[in-house]
């Protein structure tokens, strides 16, 4: 048993040396042979990188809107493009938050913790002296807003209950607002203009980034609800943000809130709701088709590339067997066994695929690095799992494509092989 193991190790080592010699002797042919594998490995690696990046960016974005927050709105996130389904619904009122909070206070067994009103508009413009920022997100709320939001302050404070109740003209701004209007100054205490109304900055949020690469949380101005209504009026988009006690029981919390809102809006039993309760699951259901599409396209391209590569490697290995027929006959005449010849050509095939896989991995890594540098917000995530998967696919391709030629070489007759010209 030990002798057989030593013999196998020796034969494997010799086969590796012969394989490397053949690859070095035919560099261009070996590279062209492995090109299909290289393209396939780049495809499967970039597909996995894109999916990992989407997952990472999606989870980061979901943490911005809160895992333990659900939203009462006029429209549904799961069918955002179908505006005609919701246009006739009555608008929400900010007073609903206060009514929900009163019901929560009277129910010790509730799944809900607090409701916070919010009005918002995307069409705002902020100015300071001769500096102007357009298309900012302006939001009106109360002093409890931070209980339902993930952002932290880098400087200053949030507005107080007194400022909220008195509709004081104060605001808290995102990082892009602070750096855009005050590139070389401290934004705290400065006064900005929103529709010719003056607001004093009392706080600045830490940089948070974009939600799903689209909406930036750093491009917002948050103010007391009454101040917002003074500037923009009451006909703006209303959201009731509701924090729940346990994110693991979001389904139960959603059902409870659904009942509360039907009660508040006096919707008769059996009638359809004229509002929507949104949660993260809506975004996840929209993300899955995108991921599946990327995976399907990647698998198709990878499969075609690896198939073409495997056919090429099989063909070249058959040619190599034909070119080295006399060598095979000589080795058999000197006592080489069939399994030794089979192992030699199988290792050569695997080595070509493995080198192609390594080149593909390096290429994919360079592409990933270039994308990260050129587009910092683009979600890409390279992982060691992809490395092992790619190398495994390379080895498997080498075995499949090299098996038939290796078996053919191992069956050659020594006498006929030595007479081969």
From TrEMBL:
GO terms for cellular component: plasma membrane
Any Pfam family hit: MacB_PCD
Tagged with keyword Isomerase: no
Cellular localisation: Cell membrane
KW Transmembrane helix (keyword) present: yes
Domain ABC3 transporter permease C-terminal: residue ranges: 299-414
GO molecular function terms noted in the UniProt entry: transmembrane transporter activity
Xref: InterPro entries: ABC3_permease_C, MacB_PCD, Macrolide_Exporter_MacB
Residue intervals passing through the bilayer: 31-51, 294-321, 342-371, 383-404
Keywords from the UniProt entry: Cell membrane, Membrane, Transmembrane, Transmembrane helix
Membrane topology: Multi-pass membrane protein
Main location: membrane
Domain MacB-like periplasmic core: 30-257
Similarity remark: Belongs to the ABC-4 integral membrane protein family.
Name this polypeptide is given: ABC transporter
Organism: Chlorobium limicola
